[in-house]
Design brief:
Layout: H1 7-10, E1 11-15, H2 19-30, E2 35-39, H3 45-49, E3 56-60, H4 68-78, E4 84-88, H5 93-101, E5 106-109, H6 114-130, E6 143-146, E7 151-154, E8 157-158, H7 163-174, E9 180-181, H8 182-189, H9 198-215, E10 222-225, E11 229-232
Parallel strand pairs: 1-2, 1-3, 3-4, 4-5
Antiparallel strand pairs: 6-7, 7-8, 9-11, 10-11
Helix pairs in contact: 2-6, 7-9
Length: 236
């Protein structure tokens, strides 16, 4: 059995209050070998997630009860690496950016084709899995994570990260190529809403980079994006 056939990888949560749209997405995703669960009320999402582990959440913005943006923020606080695709009927750029700012991995605008939904789901899952799985050629990614031991390994060598450094690396590795603002990274570093400066993030990133460079001097896998933040880029 391959990793793509295991239940956690193929299980999707669809949060959508329009029955026809929810059923359309579910039927099409099921036809592509995904297992789907539909929730139509925002207040039911967090209790369900506390008992189940989907591979990805398709999250509508407009919902009864808790709205999608609130849920996106809460999901990110509880499960930082769970992939989220926002689904919205709003086309204003600010709404799209707000969804991504809260931690969504991608967004789909209504109306959409079922094929687009499947393509976006597969693309986000590929990105999230590529960070922690062996490469197709049979080799290992330059850095792998031992989630249970809270260790980051460079070709098997423990990088000796602190808990905060590990958390930062894990968040970025979950979405290779995605740019994280300092504010987003601070949200993942400190869950107690303490007030810290952006320089604190820069300091932790600097130390993290140094440890990675000592083990992998030929690679620069954490990159600065001027005026925006940081991203994990294992290739290119």
């Amino acid at each position: 059995m391959t990793s793509q056939d295991t239940p956690p990888t193929r299980s999707l949560l669809i949060v959508e209050d329009e029955p026809k749209i929810a059923r359309l997405m579910a039927d099409y995703l099921t036809s592509h070998s995904f297992d789907t669960t539909i929730i139509s009320h925002g207040d039911d999402v967090m209790p369900w997630l506390s008992q189940h582990v989907p591979a990805l959440v398709l999250l509508d913005v407009m919902l009864p009860g808790k709205d999608g943006l609130t849920l996106c923020r809460e999901i990110r606080q509880q499960w930082p690496t769970l992939p989220i695709i926002m689904v919205t009927a709003k086309v204003e750029e600010v709404d799209r950016l707000l969804g991504l700012e809260l931690g969504a991995d991608d967004y789909i605008c209504k109306p959409f084709s079922p094929r687009e939904v499947v393509a976006r789901v597969k693309a986000v899952l590929r990105r999230s899995q590529a960070a922690v799985e062996p490469t197709e050629a049979g080799g290992q990614a330059p850095v792998t994570l031992d989630e249970e031991g809270w260790q980051a390994l460079a070709h098997g060598q423990d990088l000796g990260l602190t808990a905060v450094e590990f958390q930062l690396l894990r968040v970025m590795m979950q979405s290779p190529g995605r740019i994280f603002s300092r504010e987003q990274l601070m949200d993942h570093m400190y869950r107690d809403n303490r007030i810290v400066s952006e320089r604190t993030v820069d300091s932790h990133i600097k130390k993290l980079r140094k440890k990675i460079h000592e083990a992998l001097p030929e690679l620069e896998i954490i990159r600065s994006v001027y005026g925006v933040g940081y991203k994990y880029q294992p290739e290119g």
